[in-house]
């Protein structure tokens, strides 16, 4: 048990028969009335965001979450299959628990949030950036920057489409931000 004074970003709590992660919180002490804590909570099971207000000092149940590294193996009809790098145990993860499944590549090492009580996977996070090869893009033509939009669309390895600068060509390797899906740089 903990109280609302121990809230911090990333804290996992049991609330409404589900596990939620604190995304934002704000302690509010109005001039009149009792203090309270306004929070934004994200469900670890389905990803929905919920806003809730707790009275100051309210008792909450915390969940102990461990971070482990798992390696992506392949995708099949059961879901995305991963392997524990230490025990070599394999398991399947549903797509909604992965932050950017379209950028997963075989052999990628991902950080996994695991409920320490029952070893269930809560969330799986890719590295902040990945390197992928451009499989298709239109050639950039001189003078296309007149509109002020110097980007074109490019298809990368697994099929996602990313906006890239005009100088990127088919066959180039680029670095992509997995949190936003934006182009970062061309890799030499």
Explain what this protein looks like in three dimensions.
By secondary structure, the chain is mostly beta strands. It folds into 3 domains: 2-62, SH3 type barrels (Roll); 65-125, OB fold (Dihydrolipoamide Acetyltransferase, E2P), CATH 2.40.50.140; 130-187, Beta Barrel (OB fold (Dihydrolipoamide Acetyltransferase, E2P)), CATH 2.40.50.140. Helix content is 0%, strand content 53%. It has no helices and 16 strands. The strands form 3 sheets. The protein has a 6-stranded antiparallel sheet with strand order 1-6-2-3-4-5, with no helix packed on it. It is flat and about 65 Å long. It starts with a strand and ends with a strand.
Distinctive features:
single chain, mainly beta, OB fold (Dihydrolipoamide Acetyltransferase, E2P), 6-stranded antiparallel β-sheet, 16 strands
What structural class do helix, strand and pairing data support?
A: mainly beta
β-sheet strand percentage:
over 45%
Count of discrete alpha- or pi-helical segments spanning 4 or more residues: 0
- Strand arrangement, largest sheet? 1-6-2-3-4-5
List unreliable stretches of 5+ residues. Answer: none
Rounded to the nearest angstrom, the radius of gyration is 21 Å
Distance between the termini: 51 Å
Query: How many β-strand runs?
Result: 16
Number of domains: 3
CATH top level label of the largest domain? Mainly Beta
> What is the level-2 CATH architecture name of the largest domain?
Roll
Order of helices and strands: EEEEEEEEEEEEEEEE
Biggest sheet: strands, sense, closure? 6 strands, antiparallel
What integer is the average pLDDT? 88
- The CATH topology of the largest domain corresponds to SH3 type barrels
Q: What global shape is seen?
A: flat
State the share of residues found in helices, binned by percent: under 10%
Oligomer: single chain
């Amino acid at each position: 048990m903990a109280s609302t004074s121990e809230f911090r970003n990333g804290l996992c709590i049991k609330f409404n028969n589900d596990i939620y992660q604190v995304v934002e919180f704000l302690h509010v002490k109005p001039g009149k009335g009792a203090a309270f804590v306004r929070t934004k909570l994200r469900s670890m099971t389905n990803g929905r965001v919920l806003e809730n207000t707790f009275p100051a000092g309210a008792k909450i149940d915390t969940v102990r979450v461990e971070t482990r590294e798992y390696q992506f193996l392949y995708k099949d009809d059961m879901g995305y299959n991963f392997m524990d790098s230490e025990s070599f145990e394999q398991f399947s993860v549903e797509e909604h628990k992965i932050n950017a499944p379209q950028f997963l590549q075989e052999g990628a090492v991902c950080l996994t949030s695991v409920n320490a009580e029952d070893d269930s996977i809560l969330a799986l996070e890719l590295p902040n950036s990945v390197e992928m090869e451009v499989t298709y893009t239109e050639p950039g033509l001189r003078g296309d920057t007149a509109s002020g939009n110097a980007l074109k669309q490019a298809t990368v390895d697994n099929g996602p489409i990313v906006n890239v600068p005009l100088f990127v060509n088919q066959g180039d390797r680029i670095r992509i931000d997995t949190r936003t899906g934006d182009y970062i740089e061309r890799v030499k």
